[in-house]
Amino acid sequence: MSQDWTTIKTEQVNKIKSLSPKDRLDMVEAMALMNQYIFDSCQGWVQWIHNPTVINRFNEKELKEIYEQFRKHALEFLEFDLKATKKIKPLPKDEGRPPSTAPYA
Predict the structure, then answer these.
(1) What is the number of structural domains in the chain?
(2) In this predicted structure, what is the pLDDT of residue 90?
């Protein structure tokens, strides 16, 4: 990879800021792109969190700040996820059935 992570993420942030979908299909395409960017970042965080060599580069104060921010973002995202998932209307054939425990299936 010729670019470093921060350059790539900066470009992705700028790309997201420049998005202006014109219709439903554009919105779905934009969400897929943003989801991929988030997914890539989450994979990076998994690598960091499970690598003591990386985590040891942060002092306790820095790690506490990262934890607090991470917690805030996690709660915001999961609350958004719940809100969006609850808006999914059942298909006519599913009306009257108890709600699924797997909203993404």
Answers:
(1) 2
(2) 79
Half-sphere exposure of 5 (CA within 13 A, CB side): 7
Angstrom distance (rounded) from CA 55 to CA 53: 6
Residues 44 and 1 in one domain: yes
Cα separation, 56 vs 66, in Å, equals 13
Residue 104 inside a domain? The answer is no
What lies within 8 Å, CB to CB, of 55 at 6+ separation is 48, 49, 63
Considering the domain architecture, whether residues 13 and 35 belong to the same structural domain is answered as yes
Using one digit for the tens of pLDDT, what is the confidence trace for 34-84?
Answer: 999 999 999 999 999 999 999 999 999 999 999 999 999 999 999 999 999
Q: How far, in Å, CA of 68 to CA of 52, rounded?
A: 19
> pTM score, two decimals?
0.77
69-83 burial: b if 16+ Cβ within 10 Å, else e? eeeeeeeeeeeeeee
Q: Work out the percent of the chain whose per-residue pLDDT is above 70.
A: 87
